[in-house]
Amino acid sequence: MHTTQHIAKHMKEVHDGGNWTWVNLHDTLKDITWQQATTQVYGLNTIAVLTYHVGYYATAILSVLQGKPLVAKDEESFTHPPINNAEDWNAMRTKLQADWQVLAATIALLPDDKLNEVFTAEKYGTYYRNLHGMIEHTHYHLGQITLLKKIIVQLEE
Q1: Of 139, 137, 141, 150, which Cα lies nearest the Cα of 36?
Q2: Is the CA virtual torsion 30, 36, 41, 43 positive or negative?
Q3: Considering the entire predicted model, what is its pTM?
Q4: What's the CA gap between 22 and 46, in Å, rounded?
Q5: What is the pLDDT of residue 18?
Q6: Tell me, what DSSP letter sits at residue 23?
Q7: Which residues of the chain fall below pLDDT 70?
Q8: Looking at residue 17, what is its pLDDT?
Q9: Is the dihedral of CA 29, 30, 36, 38 positive or negative?
Q10: What is the model's pLDDT at position 80?
Q11: How many CB atoms lie within 10 A of CB 24?
């Protein structure tokens, strides 16, 4: 198995499961209601904001892998479209899942030597750094989502 295929596997596992932590986005998000997703506790980001944020960067990286310019902006990564009902929340989760599948499949097709190339600009480092960074970034926010979910469920009881 090529290195890029291993990275793609890790990318897929953080979303779909089977990773070392036994926690994944899909299973964590699947039973969260739109009300829970938009509930803010202790002044922290909401589950919806964090879900959008993770998806925003997945989309940005995928865009670069597809030969497009990097147009992501940190200040836009926390501003999601309104979520006013279950359909809005389901649409966000569905988009995340679809984008994640395409991202993992696209990474798997990269040649290994691409990993050492500069990712759009020297300041961003290599493709390797950005792909692994995306996985680490997702695990970080997945931990936040998991804790927020537990807090919100407990507050509802």
Answers
A1: 150
A2: positive
A3: 0.95
A4: 22
A5: 84
A6: -
A7: none
A8: 87
A9: positive
A10: 96
A11: 20
